[in-house]
Amino acid sequence: MPSKLFLIASTLFLGVLGIGGSFAPTESLALAGVEPSVEVSFIFQMMGGLYLGFAMLNWMNRNAPVGGIYGRPLLTANLIHFLIVSLMLIKHVIDGAGNGLILLCVLYTSFAVGFGLLQFMDPTRKSVKTG
Known about the structure:
Order of helices and strands: HHHHHEE
Number of helices: 5
Structural class: mainly alpha
Helix content: over 70%
Number of strands: 2
Number of domains: 1
Distance between the termini: 22 Å
Radius of gyration: 16 Å
Strand content: under 5%
Shape: globular
C-alpha cells in the first residue's frame, strides 16, 4: 500500500477513535464494556484529543514523501504509538479478551507493522531496503 493511502487509513482509524473518545467518552466506554466512571471518562476524553491530534498529523503529512529518511519523526511517532498499544492488546487477547478487542488488536498490529516497514522503504522506489 502506498504511503499516502496508508496515512489516510491511519487518519481515518485514529479519527474515529478520537471522535468517539472526545465527544462520546461514556458511550464509547460502555460499548467497550468498561464501567464509565467520571475519572475514566475524563482520561478517555483526553486520549480522544490525543488521537485526533495524531489523525491530523497524519492527514497533513499524507502528501509529503514518507519512507527511509523522509518523514522519520512522523513514522517513528506512529510506530511507537501503534507498537506499544498493539503489544498491550496482544497481552489482553492472550489473557482471554473478547472479540471486539481481537479486532482492535489486529488493526493496531497491522498499523504497527506498516509503519515499521515504511521506516525502511525508499519512497522513490517503493521497495524495502535490504542492506
